[in-house]
Design brief:
225 residues; alpha/beta; 3-stranded parallel sheet; 3-stranded antiparallel sheet
Amino acid sequence: MAAALLRDPEMAATQLFPPTLGEWHQPGLTPLAYDVKAAQAALAAAGWLLGADGVLHKGEERFALTLRTFPDRPELPLLATALQAQWKAVGVDLKVAVGNSSEIPAGHQDGSLQLGLYARNYALVPDPLVTLLGDLAPAGADWGVMNWQSQAMEQKLARLGKETLPAGEAAALRRDIATTLQQELPLLPIAWYRQSAAVSRALKGFELDPQERSYRLDKLTWSAQ
């Protein structure tokens, strides 16, 4: 999907936090991957068997889900269609519902949301912790996890949010949080976002601030002609 639809294969998300969020990105984590055979084996072990219609069944229950998304970002319906094909390959009947963006948080609130596809900016403020405190809140959030809780995660986030910790201890907590998110996957990352900029060849020293707080003009110089 990153290569064919977003035209940037390097943006395929191997974990929730991209390399641009240096304090949170964890190079040592086992990368996420798409593995049809492993998914089929896990579903079979959980009692889901492929029916004559090509869809998984457990007794009388048919494995059918609805994925909600919205067209405000034009790539989302395309990605949703690709996800539909990927889920079909493992025997899941995935319906794509393209509507208003408000339907995802509304589904969070009334408990009807099964899957939501949306764009989430963890660089909206200098530290992603501010966004995570909402997205991973025990009571749930409009754009975060749903029906997932971790007391250990709550404690670690609270410590990072309330205490001034030594750099090494804070880094260890961020690593533990990223590892838990990678293992339990309450949020499923699909692709990272690359911020693009056009720069004249006559300039040297350009650096793009991923959080868009500064143009860093003091680092720019004119190259020798």
